[in-house]
């Protein structure tokens, strides 16, 4: 069936930097040319990439209907979709992980041509949206089955068709180095070949657990004073002053793999219900062992991955310290040949697998 296919994003596409789902969906579009129109606050507008941005209401007060605010936010997107639907050709509209844009688009549901559908790509763990909106959504794409099941049990009614599409990491960027390559890269970044390097990566939001990791790291450094620590992505923390701790700040997607590839153990200390934990997967694919919070979809994502340990009580400091000792013992006894490790990781949580699932969900 002929359809006009539209992608809606609150972030600019094509992306100005590589990273997260922005790069992944841009690559999907570049390879398949699936969407006829991509609506976003793009900096490279043309006939296909159309500039639209979310609008703020001119007047806000606590009695203003939330539905009115969200309709206003999506007004440019709604106007474009309404216009292209006037010729009677069915429209498939994919909204990328933005509930306010989704609510605006669902206001068009009764006016779209027969055969049209609204699809929501959700990047959190569980989705809570009023039934009045959900009943107008045809499909929801989830990162994990656990996220779907949590959504199903948390909503009094959930009517869209559900697909579990997961997430994917680009093997071209994120892969382990052999011992010689790892040693050379370490030296180029100021580390020694035999250093034990712990890596932490996230922004500075408290839910990412930097405050907890600082306490964990302090205890580890007391027992293992030669350990080196690299933290990535957060604003510089004045409380971190240990000479063995390097704060590298925000890195580009192209710079990032190198700092993951020099690591030995990755700490994923998230304290909220994670949808997928993309950075965690990137770190493991770069050869790190990992300690990860039992949060949201993380146990499902890591199921069967022998180089990862789930920390069941992530708010308890001792749980991290005990898990760290466990991972050290695993590292000491591990004799997996590098080629075997590289091949296994190259087949795990890949972009190509995500692409197949994502395309199937859109075309089903």
Notable characteristics:
single chain; 364 residues; alpha/beta; Rossmann fold; 2 domains; 7-stranded parallel sheet; 6-stranded parallel sheet; 14 helices; 37% helix
General description of the model:
With 364 residues, this protein is α/β, with parallel strands linked by helices. The chain folds into 2 domains: 4-168 and 351-363, Glycogen Phosphorylase B (Rossmann fold), CATH 3.40.50; 179-346, Glycogen Phosphorylase B (Rossmann fold), CATH 3.40.50.2000. It is built from 14 helices and 13 strands. The protein has helices at 20-32, 66-73, 75-84, 99-106, 131-134, 145-154, 179-188, 210-223, 256-261, 278-285, 298-302, 317-333, 338-346, 351-363; strands at residues 4-8, 37-40, 49-51, 91-96, 117-121, 139-142, 161-164, 197-201, 228-232, 245-249, 265-268, 289-293, 308-311. The strands form 2 sheets. A 7-stranded parallel sheet has the order 3-2-1-4-5-6-7, with helices on both faces. Helix 2 (66-73) crosses helix 4 and helix 8 (210-223) crosses helix 12. The protein is elongated, with a radius of gyration of 22 Å. The model is unreliable at 60-64 (pLDDT under 50).
């Amino acid at each position: 069936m002929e359809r006009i296919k539209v992608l809606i994003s609150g972030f600019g596409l094509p992306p100005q930097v590589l990273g997260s789902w922005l790069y992944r969906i841009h690559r999907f579009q570049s390879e398949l040319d699936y969407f006829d129109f991509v609506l976003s606050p793009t900096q490279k507008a043309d006939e296909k990439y159309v500039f639209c941005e979310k609008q703020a209401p001119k007047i806000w007060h606590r009695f203003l209907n939330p539905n009115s605010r969200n309709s206003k936010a999506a007004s440019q997107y709604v106007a474009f979709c309404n216009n292209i639907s006037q010729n009677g050709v069915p429209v498939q509209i994919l909204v990328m992980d933005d509930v306010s844009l989704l609510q605006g688009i669902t206001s068009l549901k009764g006016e779209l041509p027969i055969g049209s559908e609204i699809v929501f790509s959700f990047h959190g763990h569980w989705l809570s949206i009023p039934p009045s909106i959900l009943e107008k959504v045809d499909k929801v794409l989830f990162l994990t089955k656990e996220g779907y099941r949590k959504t199903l049990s948390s909503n009094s009614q959930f009517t869209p068709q559900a697909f579990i599409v997961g997430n994917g990491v680009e093997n071209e960027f994120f892969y382990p180095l052999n011992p010689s390559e790892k040693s050379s890269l370490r030296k180029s970044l100021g580390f020694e070949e035999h250093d034990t390097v712990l890596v932490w990566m996230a922004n500075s939001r408290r839910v990412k657990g930097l405050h907890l990791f600082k306490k964990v790291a302090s205890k580890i450094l007391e027992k293992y004073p030669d350990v080196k620590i690299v933290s990535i992505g957060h604003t510089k923390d004045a409380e971190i002053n240990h000479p063995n701790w390097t704060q590298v700040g925000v890195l580009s997607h192209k710079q990032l793999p190198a700092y993951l590839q020099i690591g030995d153990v990755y700490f994923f200390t998230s304290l909220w219900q994670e949808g997928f934990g993309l950075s965690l997967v990137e770190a493991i694919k770069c050869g790190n062992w990992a300690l990860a919070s039992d949060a949201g979809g993380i146990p499902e994502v890591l199921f069967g991955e022998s180089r990862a340990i789930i920390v069941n009580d992530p708010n308890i400091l001792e749980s991290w310290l005990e898990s760290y000792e466990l991972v050290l013992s695993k590292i000491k006894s591990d004799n997996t040949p590098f080629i075997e490790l590289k091949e296994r990781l190259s087949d795990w949580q890949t972009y190509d697998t995500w692409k197949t699932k994502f395309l199937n969900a859109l075309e089903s």
